[in-house]
Amino acid sequence: MAFTVTYSSSAAISGSSFSRSTSFSVIKVAQFSSLRLADRHATVNQSKKCCAVKPVNAEPKRNYSLLPQAASISASEVSEIVEVEDFEQLAKELDNASPLEIMDKALEKFGSDIAIAFSGAEDVALIEYANLTGRPFRVFSLDTGRLNPETYRFFDEVEKHYGIRIEYMFPDAVEVQALVRSKGLFSFYEDGHQECCRVRKVRPLRRALKGLRAWITGQRKDQSPGTRSEVPVVQVDPVFEGLDGGVGSLVKWNPVANVDGTDIWNFLRVMNVPVNSLHSQGFVSIGCEPCTRPVLPGQHEREGRWWWEDAKAKECGLHKGNLKEDSSPQLNGNGNGNGSAAHADIFGSQSLVTLSRAGIENLEIGEPERAMDCCSLCPLVPLLPGNGRIVCCIG
């Protein structure tokens, strides 16, 4: 029986396409009109025996599996091409940039993997800046279940104004139930707000950030001089993890870090941006209803949050990585809350006396060092004699 077996193979990889052509020539049998099945098996067995002997000049066995090759090539190329972003250097470069420029850079770099954290307060400015860039953007918010009714209505107004859908994050119902059943609805007035904030805010935030590679906050240095005075415009988040997991997997952008609160409000008015109606009632920093109250003119905005606690505790844990220890006077201590040096508390002075109405009416305003202008908002102004000055005993 005479036969020949020929084998040819060619493989080519071009770009992302791969083509392979392999042809086995038909077994040519001479001088036989037919080939029996037994002969065919014999032929195959014989060919296997022949192939078992490897010629000296034969090519090495080829691997036609595309996936392992592609994976190994991609891994080597990525290690050579991808560069780790130096966000500390980027923060220095953007330190004098406008909030709009910083916002545009953030959205350009991360696209749909970044979102704005919206609390329902003046950080609505972030949404306006994002809208001005003309780029698509995402917004998420933490619904603790204890926000003011005005804040919920404001959320709805913002969604309609910008044509967006806010991605709300809620606390775990089982955790909230366990906390309330064991400690009551207002335990934070007795043992601090940290536990409640951890359940209602920090853990929901952690879940939200696990689906992102970056987030945008409304932190400003002047919001809390004692704890936020060193907030950079961009940083690797030192506390939370992002989509890829692990330390350094999440980038935090703070576009208005260097902006004064007054300038934020000027921007909101000029751009006719909707604002939370609570602001017109004296609220500046807005959080959950039981933990937020209006502040008086001249008071720092953080004095309206967790007022029953020490000023060092006036953070909920969302920005723990930006906090720093501060030895300067605190907001509800003898300090004036704006980072300047402390002054003696005049209300603790032995010289302070309480005057009756009759005493005020009979007061002779002839000693400037003992009088001061009364605030025009004070309800006592119409009751005071003369030009509305009141004894203060500061001299």
What is the CATH homology-level superfamily of the largest domain?
HUPs
Portion of residues in helices?
25-40%
Task: Give the tally of β-strands.
Answer: 12
- Helix run count: 11
Order of helices and strands: EEEEHHHHEHEHEHHHEEEHHEE
> What distance lies between the first and last C-alpha atoms, to the nearest angstrom?
128 Å
Mean pLDDT: 72
Largest sheet: 6 strands, mixed
Assembly classification:
single chain
- Percentage of β-strand residues: 5-15%
Based on secondary structure, the structural category is: alpha/beta
Any idea of the CATH class of the largest domain? Alpha Beta
Domain Phosphoadenosine phosphosulphate reductase: 114-294
InterPro entries: PAPS/APS_Rdtase (IPR004511), PAPS_reduct_dom (IPR002500), Rossmann-like_a/b/a_fold (IPR014729), Thioredoxin-indep_APS_Rdtase (IPR004508)
GO molecular function, one term: metal ion binding
Keywords: Iron, Iron-sulfur, Metal-binding, Oxidoreductase
In words, what does this structure look like?
The protein has about 400 residues and is α/β, with parallel strands linked by helices. It folds into three domains: about 80 residues, no CATH class; about 240 residues, Rossmann fold; about 45 residues, no CATH class. Helices cover about 30% and strands about 10% of the residues. It is built from eleven helices and twelve strands. The strands form four sheets. A six-stranded mixed sheet has the order 7-6-5-8-10-9. A two-stranded antiparallel sheet has the order 1-4. It has a two-stranded antiparallel sheet with strand order 2-3. Helix 5 links the parallel strand 5 and strand 6. Helix 4 packs across helix 5. It is globular and about 60 Å long. The termini are far apart. One of its GO terms (molecular function) is iron-sulfur cluster binding. Its cofactor is [4Fe-4S] cluster. It comes from Hibiscus syriacus (Rose of Sharon). This is 5'-adenylylsulfate reductase 3. Keywords: Iron, Iron-sulfur, Metal-binding, Oxidoreductase.
